[in-house]
């Protein structure tokens, strides 16, 4: 089972709303990632969690707040977003293995398409 | 700093034609990893292949084949006998030994296979 699930599939929110994106995997992976993908652009890394600890934060604004409650779940809490934050938010997971082996390959979920009005 | 260039923004082919997607990369690391991902309209990025910098062997998987050439810093992807289901955006990506969790993507090539 190489499935990463994300909910919701679509989300429309106002600039004053608070919402959360959820990501779940049951592959026993210990690394989980959030990527942001604007239309017609490549994905860009936002955060990496390794063994439930934040290991990489790519200078993401504080209106995005990640959380990893356990090794299978990853949340992204959203607050006071701007219209330019509208994008596809992709979650990925991988084993924490030696780079260049299948253990480190990242598997992606279908994404949450977020629109900020 | 690393860089991945996919010069072909969009390609259209007629079904059953062969098509090659180009990828050129730059890195200062001697150990690095190259990937291809497929993104269909549904949005999910589908892992296709990883190639390590020390392994220049080309690979074939069904209708897919990959040509890795360190001398030209290229990692090209060929689809043989294309099918409509191959229509998608294809991303080439690079990660370096230092910071191996960070996948750096090229800008992608949108492939349209016309029936």
Sum up the structure in keywords:
heterodimer, A: 117 residues, mainly beta, seven-stranded mixed beta sheet, 55% strand, B: 115 residues, four-stranded antiparallel beta sheet, 12 strands, 0% helix
How many helices of chain A? The count is 0
Q: Would you report the number of β strands of chain B?
A: 12
Low-confidence stretches of chain A: none
Distance between the termini of chain A: 36 Å
Helix/strand class of chain A: mainly beta
The largest contact between protein chains, plus residue counts on each side, is: A-B, 27 and 23 residues
| Number of β-strand runs of chain A | 11
Average pLDDT figure of chain B: 93
Order of helices and strands of chain A: EEEEEEEEEEE
Which percent range fits the helix content of chain A?
A: under 10%
Instruction: Output the helix-strand order of chain B.
Output: EEEEEEEEEEEE
């Amino acid at each position: 089972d190489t499935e990463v699930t994300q909910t919701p599939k679509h989300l429309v929110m106002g600039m004053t709303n608070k919402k959360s994106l959820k990501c779940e995997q049951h592959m026993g992976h210990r690394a989980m990632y959030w990527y942001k993908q604007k239309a017609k652009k490549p994905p860009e890394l936002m955060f990496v969690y390794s063994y439930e600890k934040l290991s990489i934060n790519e200078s993401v604004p504080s209106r995005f707040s990640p959380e990893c409650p356990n090794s299978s779940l990853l949340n992204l809490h959203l607050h006071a977003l701007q219209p330019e934050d509208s994008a596809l938010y992709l979650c990925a997971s991988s084993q924490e293995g030696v780079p260049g082996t299948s253990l480190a390959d990242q598997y992606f979920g279908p994404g949450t398409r977020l629109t900020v009005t | 700093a690393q860089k991945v260039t996919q010069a072909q923004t969009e390609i259209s082919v007629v079904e059953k034609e062969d098509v090659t997607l180009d990828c050129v990369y730059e890195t200062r690391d001697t150990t690095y990893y190259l990937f291809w991902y497929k993104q269909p309209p549904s949005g999910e990025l589908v892992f296709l292949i990883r190639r390590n910098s020390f392994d220049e062997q080309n690979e074939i998987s069904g209708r897919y084949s990959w040509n890795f050439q360190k001398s030209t810093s290229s990692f090209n992807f060929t689809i043989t006998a294309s099918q409509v289901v191959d229509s998608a955006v294809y991303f080439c990506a690079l990660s370096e030994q230092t910071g191996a969790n960070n996948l750096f993507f090229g800008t992608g090539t949108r492939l349209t296979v016309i029936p």
